[in-house]
Amino acid sequence: MAERAGATVELREVTKRYGDTVAVDRLSFTVPAGRICVLVGPSGCGKTTSLRMVNRLIEPSSGEILIDGQNVLADDPTQLRRRIGYVIQQTGLFPHQTVAENIATVPRLLGWPKERIQARVDELMKLIGLDPERMRRRYPAQLSGGERQRVGVARAMAAEPPLMLMDEPFAAVDPIVRERLQNEFLRLQRAQGITVIFVTHDIDEAIKLGDRVAVMRLGHLVQYAPPAELLAHPADDFVAQFVGSDRGLKRLSLLTVGGVELAPVDRAKLDGAPVLPSSMSLRDALAVMLSSEAQEAPVMDGDRYLGALSLQQIGRILRVDEPA
Amino acid sequence: MTALGDLVRWLSDPANWQGSHGIPVRVLEHIELSGFSVLVALVIAMPIALYLGHTGRAGFIAINVANIGRALPSLALLAFGLVIAISLGLGLGFWPTVFALVPLAIPPIVTNAYVAIREVDRDIVEAARGMGLSEGQILRSIEIPLGLPVILSGIRTAAVNVVATATLGALVAGGALGRFIVDGLALQEYDQLMAGALLVALLAVATEVSFGALERATVPAGMRVVR
Ligand SMILES: Nc1ncnc2c1ncn2[C@@H]1O[C@H](COP(=O)(O)OP(=O)(O)O)[C@@H](O)[C@H]1O
Ligand SMILES: [Mg+2]
């Protein structure tokens, strides 16, 4: 499925000044190919500005942005943007164009032949769970919020860009739809192998979607780390506070039962305790064990018994990341 | 009642429907004069207004030019047009009137087109730009289609004003429906005067109605649909 690998993106000392205000201050980080980097931080910390410098909707005051080693400033901006997917919060779908026309925007700009465009539109509509026959000719106003957001993502992916920029794409939908969209998006992103820079102010979304999370504050990068590390070792009080006092619990949701050291307890002694599949998150396991009042529970990989997980064990994992 | 009777009699007299001074010829002259003036105004005003709207420049001027337009006295414009036409050797009648009507038509066209483009949702425009549409493509395929009804309503205002004011052309020896009014007044033929006034009013209303229909027809599909 992934015909093209994602691009590597590198920001070097990127700064944006507006008069005396510094919106983004010497921002440097690298996003490996095919990974999702989430920019997170409170409102006004410079996330959108950083994102829009990558596709040159904003020109940096200084610093360099490299995509696969090539400086974005070397290219004509419109040509550059046609190779980079872009999704914004209100989707920015064209209200006077149908779903199919919206999705076809960039392929049309690139002059793809008609048949190829139509095939790609159908493929994407199926991927995002919209029946092409029924939905192709609908207008954005005839879609639900979730459907519009899906079309926005499909439109950004249409020309198989190696990089996508997403600015709070799921912020305007309700939590249940958001969760579904996040899962779908992860599936799509993994399948297509696209590199993604994703902006959100929601730390839970950052932890869920990010391979790397960049925490920003007042235009600075405060910490750049995989989510588990962010939760385990917040760089300072600001990050610790931002990830939340329940960061231990959040970290549990990133770890699976099969991934921790289990006690070699006799399986027979665990009769009556709930069975935990090895792929279950520690957070879910904790909930199951607390609600069934089990001190220990057997962990199974299919039919194979792996060992016992105890509440004490979970407690130890939680304590590892007490602030120093 | 006699006035109305006179009017009806004048209008139903076949002699008034024939020849180069008849009603059909005068109506056609009026449409030609008005249409040409609006067209010239469009050619001058539309590119400027679209450019300003797209870039967001000179907003204050673009919006307030309409008020300036309303303040310009038509007779003064006509006098002005006459001077220009004569100095260019274009004679009386058609050209002085055109020179008077064009400045009248420009302001509503500029203001509406400017506002129409500015009012297109900035998120939509930014999304378009972010996907790699050029500025010209954004204007052509996003801003103009979405702003078209408002753009047309400016042209409608201009056209209705022009149709009504084109009557003045008769003062500088032009043709069109103003002929009936000016001649009726000079000759104290009030039936002719009233018929002229009625025909101008009807033409103005017809202009208004047909532009209104056009505006409704150009609301982009997708903006019209109801869930
Ligand atoms: N065009 C601009 N002119 C002046 N200041 C701006 C402009 N755009 C953004 N800023 C400022 O830059 C900072 C970062 O903005 P932004 O990147 O939009 O933040 P975020 O997306 O994290 O909420 C804010 O303080 C904002 O006020
Ligand atoms: Mg923002």
Observed structural traits:
heterodimer; A: 324 residues; alpha/beta; 6-stranded mixed beta sheet; 4-stranded antiparallel beta sheet; 14 helices; 13 strands; 24% strand; B: 227 residues; mainly alpha; MetI-like fold; 9 helices; 77% helix; binds adenosine-5'-diphosphate; binds magnesium ion
What are the SSEs and their pairings?
The complex is a heterodimer of chains A (324) and B (227).
Chain A: E1 9-18, E2 21-31, E3 36-40, H1 47-54, E4 62-67, E5 70-71, H2 77-82, E6 84-88, H3 99-103, H4 105-109, H5 114-127, H6 132-135, H7 145-157, E7 163-167, H8 175-192, E8 195-200, H9 203-209, E9 212-217, E10 220-225, H10 227-232, H11 237-243, H12 247-254, E11 276-277, H13 282-291, E12 296-301, E13 304-310, H14 311-320
Parallel strand pairs in A: 3-8, 3-9, 6-7, 7-8, 11-12
Antiparallel strand pairs in A: 1-2, 1-4, 4-5, 9-10, 12-13
Helix pairs in contact in A: 7-8, 12-14
Chain B: H1 2-12, H2 23-55, H3 59-71, H4 74-87, H5 94-118, H6 122-130, H7 135-165, H8 178-187, H9 190-217
The structure holds adenosine-5'-diphosphate and magnesium ion.
Magnesium ion binds next to helix 1 of chain A.
How would you classify the helix and strand content of chain A by structural class?
A: alpha/beta
What is the CATH top level name of chain B? Answer: Mainly Alpha
SSE ordering of chain B: HHHHHHHHH
For the terminal residues of chain B, how far apart are their CA atoms? 54 Å
Instruction: Bin the strand percentage of chain B.
Output: under 5%
Please tell me how large the radius of gyration of chain B is.
21 Å
Q: What's the overall average pLDDT of chain B, rounded? A: 88
- The global form of chain B is elongated
Taken in chain order, the helices and strands of chain A follow as EEEHEEHEHHHHHEHEHEEHHHEHEEH
The oligomeric state of the chains shown is heterodimer
How much of the sequence lies in strands of chain A comes to 15-25%
Distance from N terminus to C terminus of chain A (CA atoms, Å) equals 45 Å
Bound small molecules, by name, code or SMILES, are: adenosine-5'-diphosphate, magnesium ion
Share of helix of chain A, binned: 25-40%
Radius of gyration of chain A: 22 Å
Fourth-level CATH superfamily of chain B = MetI-like
User: Which parts of chain B are unreliable, with pLDDT below 50 for 5 consecutive residues or more?
Assistant: none
Total beta strands of chain B:
0
CATH topology grouping of chain B = MetI-like fold
Helix proportion of residues of chain B, in percent? over 70%
Strand order of the largest sheet of chain A: 6-7-8-3-9-10
